[in-house]
Each structure stands twice: as C-alpha cells, then as structure tokens.
Amino acid sequence: MSLKHNLLILIILWSGFSLHAKESFYPVSDINPILLLNSNAVVRESKILLEIYSTKKVSYKVKEVITVLNENGESEGVLYIPYDSNRTVNIKEAVVYDKNGSFVKKFKNTEIYDQRYFDGFSLYSDARFKRITPNVSTYPYTVMYEYTIDFNGVVDYYDWTPIDGYYKSIERTSYSIRLHDDMQVRIRENNIESIEKNEEVDDDVQYSWQLKNQLAIEREPYAIPIYEHVPTISIAPTEFSYFGTDGDLSTWESYGQWIWELIEDKTTLPEERILFLKELVKGEDNTLDKVKAIYKYLQEETRYVSVQLGIGGFEPLSAEKVDEVKYGDCKALVNYMRAMLEAVGIISYYTLVNAGRTAEKIVPDFPSQDFNHVILCVPLESDTVFLECTSQFSPFGFLGSFTADRMVLLVDKDNSRLIHTPKFNTNDNLWKSSVSIVLDLQGNAVVNDTVVYSGLQYEFIEDQLRKTTEEQIEDELKEGDITGAVYKNIVYRSNQSEVPSATRIREIDVARFAAKMGDRFFMPVNIINQSSSTPRREKNRTYPFRMNLSYRDIDKVEIQLPEGYEIEYLPGGTTITSDFGSYQYSLEADGRTISYVRKNEINAGTFQPEKYAAFVEYMKNIYDADNQKIILKKL
Fold this sequence. Notes:
- The protein has 635 residues and is α+β, with helices and mostly antiparallel strands.
- 16% of the residues lie in helices and 39% in strands.
- Helix 5 crosses helix 6.
- The protein is globular, with a radius of gyration of 31 Å.
- This is DUF3857 domain-containing protein.
C-alpha cells in the first residue's frame, strides 16, 4: 500500500474524529433557564414512532436525548428495555456527551448489559432486559439513545405518558402512530390540553402528538398519582394476535372470551383428588364452609411461583399439573382453586385485576390489557367472596389494599364483564387500644396495652403474625415509638372474624416515662398512638391531594399515679371537626387514676389544592393535642 494511500486513510479517520470532537450536540447552555427550575434532568428530544403493520407485526422506533443535571437525575440517564421471546430489541446507538455537547463515549454492543430478568420467585420465564448505565461522574452530561423494539404480535400497546415522573422537564417530545394495511387502533386521550395533535391520511394513517417546553413538576405532599393529571395517550388494538392465538379487545366481553379459551380446558383433576375433595367437605353444612375448607387446603398444600413464559404470561398451568407439583403462579393457583370447587359442585370465576396500592384504575369504556394479577370470585347465596390464591397466610376472603375497591374483569365464557371488588369503610378499618400505665416514684412506668387492628389496618401487623417473639421485639425497637422501652412480653394473634383483624398484646417497662424536673413530673398525654409529625406547608399548592384510607382509631388509657403526687395540670380535652375527619379526646381524674379517651377518624378522599392549607392546620391541631403534657406535683 502506498504512502499516499496510508496518508489518505489517516486524514479520513482524523476527520471523523474531529467531527466528534468539534460538533456540539445539545449543549446544556442551549436549555431555557426556566426548564432548569426544580429539574434533575431535561428531556432534550424524545421521538417515538409506533408502526402497526398487522396484528402480528408491530414496531417501536425510539430516539431519546436526555441531559442529566445532577446525581438525583442519574436514573433518567439509564436505558432499561425489557424483552422476551415475543419481541426483539436493537439498540442502534448509545452515546454520551459532556455539558458542552462534546463527544465523550459511544457504547459498543459488548458494553450493553443483556441479562435474564430474575425476580426471585419466577420458576419459568423468558423475560430478559438490556441496560446501559452511563457511569459519568461529572455533571451535567447528555445521553442519546436510538433503538427499535419489534413485536411478533401484541395484546396491548404501550401508552404514551410524556411526563412520567417528578423533577424532569421537557424541551420537545413526540409520539406518532402509523397504521399500515387498514389496521385499526382505539385511542383514548386524557389531559391533553397542552398537547399539539395532528392526523394525516394517505396510503397509511398517521396520528401524532407533540409536547414542548414542559416545566418540571415538584412532588407535593399527599400527591395524587402523577398519571391522573398529566397528558396520557392510551392505545389499544381491536383485533390482536399473540403466540398463535387470535383475540378481540374491542369489548370486555370479547377479551374475556379470549381469556376463557385459554383456561376452559384446564380444570381436569385426577380422580383421586376429586374423591379427596368430596370427602373433605362432606361434613360441612353450607357452601361457604365448603369453600373455606378447600381454600385452607390450597393454602396448606401449594406455594406461589411465577410463570412468565410465552403465552404462559396469560395461560395458566393445568389444574392437573398444579395438583402434581403443588406450585403455580396467580393464574395457575386461581385455576386450581376453581377446579377444586368445580369438583364439589361450586361455581367460581377466574377474575383479572390490576393489583397494587396505587394501580391505575380500569377505564370501563376503554377495554385494554391493564391487568397484572388474577383472583377468584365465588358467588354465594347471601354474598360474593373474592379469594387471593397466592398467599399461604391471607385470611379467607381478604383482598386488602392490593386488590380491594376496584373494577375487575370476571371471565365467564361469552358473558365476561366488569365488576367491583369490595371496599373497606371507616368502621372496618379500625384500631382499638386498651392501655394500662402504672407510674412509680422515679417516673418509670409499667405499660400493658392491647391493640386490635381491623380491616386494612390489619395489614400493618400482618407480617408480625409469622415472626418469632424475638423478631417481633426487634421490629418494635426499630420502630422506636416508645423511648426507653424494655419488652417483657409481646404476643400477636389472628382473630377469626368476618372483617380480618389481629391483636397485639404487650407488657413493657418504660424508663423515665415521666420527665422529672425538681418536684414535678411532666408526662405525655398520649404514648401509644401519638401523632409524630405534621404535613409540609405549601404556599402555592398546584395539584389536588388525597387521603387514601378511611379509618377510625379509638384509644382508652388508664394511668395510675404514684402516692405522694397530685395533679397540677390536666389538659381540658378538645374536639376538632373538618372535611378531612374528626378528632376528640378527653381526660378525667379520679383520685390517683387518670382516664384518657381519644377518637380519631380520617376521611378518605381527593381534595382540591385550595383546601390544603386547611388540611395542614387540621393535622397540626391534632399533633398539638396529642403532644400535650400532664403535670404532676409532689405533695
């Protein structure tokens, strides 16, 4: 090779390097200063194109440019793409730039982390993910990712939520849908006042939405979920294909029909199991008791293991297989319970639910695959029972905050429909305490308390029921709600009641329960259920706020005073009422006995921003009332 030829190659290579070195790519100085306010990261550009060629061929083409401003925005610069055997991921480019827009690094394919997704409880799964972590130590910096995700059939499409978190501003983001060969989708728009929208029709149909110059949103106390007040575009198919099966998502009934076809032949049980079940319930007088007996058997004999393999994400293992191996995921265990009930002549229904404390609500007039869990619905003559089949410990019929009070899809062949799971009311969600405190001459106290947790408050101590006494005491000490506590005994027990409840009984020695100053003791009014903080004040509240749980607390305390002391000051009690709840306490003295009664009721609800100041004041008044002192004086 000639010297001239070699020189030419060097010039070309140097030119390419120089382009990277000199080209300015999204310098931070170009960001409008207003977009830096309260922001940890800025979306410089985001372009998503959803191309739908057929029910079996769908492609997402994505380009993202994000500037990470500080360490709190670090996660925004990480690329994380889950995939499985039904979708392939091709990362075309991944580049890092410094604050001036100068090239820092380009990731090679060998530097992209590609691993099986392991959640700790999945036995069968084809889920994987690709991840790129920039690991840049100097802020700010900018990342640019360009990739495609190709699907071989889908049940549902990704929604577009351009504002998907707090403390992140947006320069420009867009989402487009291109429909080929007369394909159809259903679209639901929500909170799109700030969105530019366009529709084009030629050989293909294209919809597009764009958002520009969006300021970062600060997280406010008691915030409603962000998806409730930001722009969202939901997209769902009518007809779909998935792992060789065809379905229709245009109605809840048709989607339920597709699910039914996946489960209808899965309830066959071995003959010996059927005979066992019939013998198991032979002595039970009514249907409810039969269901309880079989549910108890399910909890004792099976365990939860996730199966997310291909169509297995929707199709359960057969009841016969679960009977053999004694494990299954939510789909398999629900189907197994359904099969066992069917074996003794009891009808039940496989029911889809979007589970989670803050899960998005199902939209009745927009059928979509937004479910992530399965429970069992058992209609009875006097009531309907819902069963959580994945827990070995959950009380019979208790859904809890994970699945209670929401729309679910009951799968019933050609009559599938939305129904609503039970809601726990204020009377159900009860804390009730009875406390005895005996004070000695040094200000130390022996405290005996019994607390009953009911309804959703039961969840606060549910885990303690399965722990040793040593573990329970260790957890109590970590909580640190009683300073100077030495635990002599603690007992937790589950109560057999219609509304799930559990009881905690404690015997505690408390050093310096009452603070001594000269010849006086200063003693807290409330030690067991005391308000420990108040909500942060917000001068300019922007969004509504929410109390998620309605509940009632009732505390009754008797304090025995030591001889030689009299009451110098006893708070007079108070009553507070508001839209957010009601609170009252009273104190009475009878000789050396002080009786304290406290009732606190909180109303769940969503409240407008202008009410937030009143809410803070209400909670502060409760805090002040809870933290008053009784003063004792030596005779």
